[in-house]
């Protein structure tokens, strides 16, 4: 008698539908060239290179105790209060630290896990299975939808590089679970006015979906502070409105993985219920550093000034070389149109040309087809490095 062979377990079939992670692709090519001895200047991945301010590091060190314990998933009350106070100072909104705020391990935790809270399970009658993602967007929005067996609605961008909310027709609206907005926008740096958020929330109340706003770059601006989603809400409980933010960009704290999710009280309550089960509670010494960061604006103003100098260097170069820069009002990105001398205005070809000369930029096509004629330049390296890069670009362009 033949013993039957047990069937092997299967992986989530949606994994096969994931696109290669854009930044992993970029890193692989970078490592290959570096191994060949090519000296590279990286304007591709937007990872801040300036130091985390000393007072934040001091707060971290002083919070490390001889004995440790599991941190509470809801976060320290002092951190929730610091975040709520920051929303009040920055956006003029009243946020209840108990009902409207939850710390997150950077923005990515909140971005990814929000989908699981809102998307109905497969097979649910009348399922809301659709998530609207801007046609150029941070990849995690869409990846989370795919892995949770939902469907992505690619939301077209208008000529101002903001999502065209008129594309949310009644048929789309009734299926929609989440509308993702992002301002200042990655990768273009476009900034949305408060009226744009109000329009999104009006649609959300009409059709019953959630508006989720990724505001990771809200503090990197050069003319006027960008608006935020919670400013557009008229509901004291921020119904249908959720904001994700992070200390990674404003305070150069990418390695700390410290962010927040704030807004709709029902969503925050659900996340408080789910988060302990995931095991991602933020260590208390990180939270103590975060409290120091949210309570101080001087270091943010100083960082904005540093970025403004670097930005002006590249804007001047683009003007001299007749390169078109579109959007780019906020964040630390310039959204540069590929020159017409490049065959097909192909971003990959142009990026490869720059890479051969040691300059790494991100082809816009990595973020979506709409970006195929653009490259994103993240001016995060130190000013002297930026000056060296401008000299190289001045010579080759």
CATH architecture classification name of the largest domain:
3-Layer(aba) Sandwich
Integer tally of domains: 2
Question: Number of DSSP strands?
Answer: 13
Distance, first to last CA = 74 Å
Low-confidence stretches at least 5 residues in length (pLDDT < 50)? none
- Oligomerization status of the protein chains: single chain
The CATH topology name of the largest domain reads Aspartate Aminotransferase, domain 2
Chain-averaged pLDDT? 94
Put simply, the count of helices is 14
Listing every helix as H and every strand as E from the N terminus to the C terminus, the arrangement reads HEHHEHEHEHEHEHEHEHHHEEHEEEH
Instruction: Sketch the major β-sheet.
Output: 7 strands, mixed
Q: Specify the CATH homologous superfamily of the largest domain.
A: Type I PLP-dependent aspartate aminotransferase-like (Major domain)
Structural class: alpha/beta
Strand content: 5-15%
Helix content: 40-55%
């Amino acid at each position: 008698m033949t013993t039957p062979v047990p069937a092997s377990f299967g992986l989530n079939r949606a994994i096969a539908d994931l696109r290669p992670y854009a930044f992993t692709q970029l890193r692989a090519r970078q490592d290959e060239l570096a191994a060949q001895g090519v000296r590279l200047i990286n304007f591709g991945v937007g990872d801040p290179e300036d130091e985390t301010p000393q007072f934040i590091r001091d707060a971290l060190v002083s919070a490390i105790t001889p004995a440790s314990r599991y941190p509470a998933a809801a976060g320290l009350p002092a951190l929730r209060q610091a975040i709520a106070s920051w929303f009040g100072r920055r956006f003029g909104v009243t946020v209840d630290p108990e009902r409207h705020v939850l710390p997150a391990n950077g923005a990515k935790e909140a971005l990814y896990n929000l989908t699981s809270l809102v998307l109905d399970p497969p097979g649910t009658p009348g399922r809301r299975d659709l998530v609207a993602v801007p046609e150029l967007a941070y990849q995690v929005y869409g990846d989370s939808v795919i892995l949770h067996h939902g469907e992505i609605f690619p939301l077209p961008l208008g000529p101002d590089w903001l999502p065209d909310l008129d594309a949310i027709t009644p048929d789309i609206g009734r299926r929609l679970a989440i509308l993702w907005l992002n301002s200042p926008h990655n990768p273009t740096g476009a900034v949305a006015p408060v009226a744009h958020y109000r329009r999104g929330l009006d649609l959300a109340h009409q059709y019953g979906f959630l508006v989720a706003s990724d505001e990771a770059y809200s503090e990197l601006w050069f003319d006027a502070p960008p608006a935020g989603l919670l400013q557009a809400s008229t509901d004291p409980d921020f119904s249908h409105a959720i904001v994700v933010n992070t200390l990674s960009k404003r305070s150069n704290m990418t390695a700390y993985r410290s962010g927040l999710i704030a807004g709709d009280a029902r969503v925050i309550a659900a996340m408080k219920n789910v988060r302990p089960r995931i095991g991602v509670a933020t260590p208390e010494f990180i939270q103590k550093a975060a409290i120091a960061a949210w309570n101080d604006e001087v270091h943010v103003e100083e960082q904005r000034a540093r970025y403004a100098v670097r930005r002006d260097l590249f804007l001047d170069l683009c003007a001299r070389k007749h390169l078109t820069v579109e959007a780019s009002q906020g964040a630390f990105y310039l959204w540069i149109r590929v020159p017409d001398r490049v065959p097909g205005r192909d971003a990959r070809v142009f990026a490869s040309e720059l890479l051969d000369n040691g300059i790494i930029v991100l082809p816009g096509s990595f973020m979506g087809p709409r970006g195929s004629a653009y490259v994103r330049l993240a001016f995060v390296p130190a000013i002297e490095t930026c000056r060296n890069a401008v000299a190289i670009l001045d010579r080759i362009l």
